[in-house]
Amino acid sequence: MDVRFPQIADQLLLIERELRVQGWWSDVSPSAEALASVEPFAVDTLDFEQWLQWIFLPRMKAILEQDLPLPNASGIQEMAEMVFAARNVQGKDRQLQVLLKEFDQLISDAS
């Protein structure tokens, strides 16, 4: 098991918590077609927060649970920055961006 797994698991929980705090968590799953997007971050079918909840978090949890190799790099915070800048959400996204940056750093800190 990669030594970063416990820290990454904690980070994923913090990201989920922040999505809930901001009211960006949904109990209703997007359609199967929306989830099947092949575009990066499913930009053609999902909002960024939906992508985090329904694709990113489940995939990362599966990696941890199945002891699979972690990605070599992550640029999720950069994507978040672009998305939120375009939306003008007035700082609601600040903590989420901090958490995503910390996630990116954990991924890039190969042991």
UniProtKB/TrEMBL annotation:
InterPro entries: UCP006257, YqcC-like_dom, YqcC-like_sf. Gene3D superfamilies: YqcC-like. Residues 7-106 form the YqcC-like domain. It comes from the Bacteria. One of its GO terms (biological process) is single-species biofilm formation. Pfam families: DUF446. This is YqcC family protein.
